Amino acid sequence: MSDFTFSSAELAVLINHMTGGRLLEAAPALPELQVDEQTLAAAEEELLDRGLLVSLPFEQVSGVTSQLASVLSAAITPERVCIVRVVHGDHTDPPAFFSFTPECIARNLVDQQGQHVFTELADREEAVSAILAAGGAAEPAASKKAPVKKAPAKKGRATTKPRPLADLLKEATLLVMLMVVADPAEPSAAATSLSWLETEAGLWLVDGSSDGEAPLAAPVAEKFLRQRVTGALTGEE
Length: 237
Description:
- The protein has 7 helices and 13 strands.
- It is α+β, with helices and mostly antiparallel strands.
- It folds into 2 domains: 2-64, Arc Repressor Mutant, subunit A (Orthogonal Bundle), CATH 1.10.10; 73-142 and 153-234, no CATH class.
- The strands form 2 sheets. Strands 1, 4, 5, 6, 7, 8, 9, 10, 11, 12 and 13 form an 11-stranded antiparallel β-sheet that branches. Strands 2-3 form a two-stranded antiparallel sheet.
- Strand 11 and strand 12 form a beta hairpin.
- The longest helix is centred in the N-terminal third of the chain and has 13 residues, at 37-49.
- The two termini are 27 Å apart.
- 27% of the residues are buried.
């Protein structure tokens, strides 16, 4: 995996280059981005120093390096995008976005310091592992040395019997909500959603076909959950 971390000003400079200068061509955009021209100039110098912007010969403009351009292009104009939200008790993590193009799979999120983190993922399998890891179900494919410790199952629980989601939420250590949108730029973009939660007894997959009835969740093995997430990403659910 390749990681890139940017401040808001640096990201604004990069997107401005990626969009041919349209982002910052109007002065009113600067207050909305909470940056000023001096901050943007300093950000551009920092990106040049980091080698992420390259000065073109005999030109005053700069270009984004090819690897970073591929990652940013995936995030800006994805063919398929996956949004993952994780709730821990009364705290909701900032969403993580997984963007897919034929050339690149990219994850982007905002970290605890307010920095924008972009990661280029090797393939769909690595993306699925990263999504499951965000929800506590698995370690990323690139980091298998320290497996997640599974909570001991509660004695006496019926391992195949669905339970009301409202009851399980009282016991949940986390809730994961996943939405996948195909062709997000199209007015008729189709969305697929999937949710699961974790309790001391294990993982539970929310039944999305309740049709107005009180929703249920059923125990689910990690292997099957991985299959469901893969199916959602590929549109084969």
